[in-house]
Every structure is written in structure tokens, then in C-alpha cells.
């Protein structure tokens, strides 16, 4: 067992030496420089709005002994600097998914899951917020729209599984994306009511949006597609 533990520790050191990057780990007002290697993980999880979220995290693999503030916590920040541009990633995962996991049986290394922080200076201006989900409201307020599943994209193309209980389906897209073709369960649907107004999503200036709301409330699971 000691031989296996020593081998795992050697592999961790080798990984850091050959593929590691210096990043800044921040919690509140405290920060520390650490060496991490970069990877990714894919998850699916149900949101409060009934959407099955597909989630890709940017992972940082660190030696457990190098964690500067103990176990990673939601809201911790990891900052990368490339060519003078600092990109900020926040420790976060969908509901029910652990923020980190150990990468080996001896807990020599830890894999920390993050997403790009909305205040990061490197989010391209072409990426705009959009929202999909279900709401019992027939005229969703801005707050109710912000509570739907929100992501960033450069087009209207999307595919989401939405679970509703006597609720309306909502698709909210920037006007600049044009008029989409909307399908429900693979069939083009024209049973939508539309309205247009400016909405301010987190980290984004007020932008004109079109709100598509299903004509009828539904109960069950629907595959919503925009193209």
C-alpha cells in the first residue's frame, strides 16, 4: 500500500511539473498562488425551473496539500492570467453535484469544478443571455424569467428538456438572434404567444428580448428545440 501511495504522489508531482499552471485561488479577501492542471467534466442536473441542464465545468486539479483555504467552497474564485488578460472562474456546480472530488484513492489530488464568472473580462461580447424553462405565470416578470435556466450563447440554437406541472413553457431570446423555429417534442409548434421587452440579465446590459410563451399550460416533460 505504501508503494501505491508513493507512486500516486510521484504521479501528482510529475503532472504538476509537466502540465501545471500558476493560478490564483481566492476566497473573500484572501488569495494564494497555487499550481494546477486543467481539465473538464460534463454533468446533467435538474434545475428548479424544470430544465435538465447540461453543464460543462472547467476543472482545476490541485494537490490536496496545496489547497490554501482547506476544502473548496461555493463562490471561491480561481484566476488565470494569459497574455495579460485575467479570466475568473467560480467554484460552482448544478444543484446536487459536489463542488469537488478526489482524483485518487489516497486523496492526493482534488478536482475542483468551476464555471466562468459573469464578471470575467474575457466573455466575448457576442455571447448573450437566453432563458428556457417553465413557469405557472401567464405573464412572467423579469424576476421569473431570471429564475429560468439561463445560459450564454451566440445564437438561438438550443435543445432543452423541460419538466412542467400545470405550467407554461418559456423561451426567451435576444432580438438580435432573429426569429427562431421552435419545436416541442420534435414537432414544429406555432402555439406560442410572444411579447418583446428589454431585460437585464446578470453581467449584461439591458437588451431587447422576445419572450415566447406556450399558448397552453402543460403537465409532463417536453423537449424544447430552437433553431
Blueprint of the fold:
Layout: H1 2-19, E1 21-27, E2 30-46, E3 51-63, E4 77-82, E5 85-91, E6 100-102, E7 109-116, E8 128-135, H2 142-146, E9 149-153, E10 158-174, E11 182-184, E12 187-188, E13 192-199, E14 207-214, E15 218-226
Antiparallel strand pairs: 1-2, 1-4, 2-3, 3-7, 3-10, 4-5, 5-7, 6-7, 8-9, 8-10, 10-14, 10-15, 11-12, 11-15, 13-14
Task: Give a short synopsis of this structure.
The protein has helices spanning 2-19, 142-146, and strands spanning 21-27, 30-46, 51-63, 77-82, 85-91, 100-102, 109-116, 128-135, 149-153, 158-174, 182-184, 187-188, 192-199, 207-214, 218-226.
CATH topology of the largest domain: Thrombin, subunit H
Give the strand line-up of the largest sheet: 1-2-3-7-5-4
The oligomeric state of the chains shown is single chain
**What are the low-pLDDT stretches, counting only 5+ consecutive residues below 50?**
none
**Intertermini distance:** 55 Å
Number of strands: 15
Write the element-wise H/E pattern from the N-terminal end onward: HEEEEEEEEHEEEEEEE
- CATH architecture group name of the largest domain: Beta Barrel
Percent of residues in beta strands: over 45%
Return Rg in Å.
21 Å
CATH C-level class of the largest domain: Mainly Beta
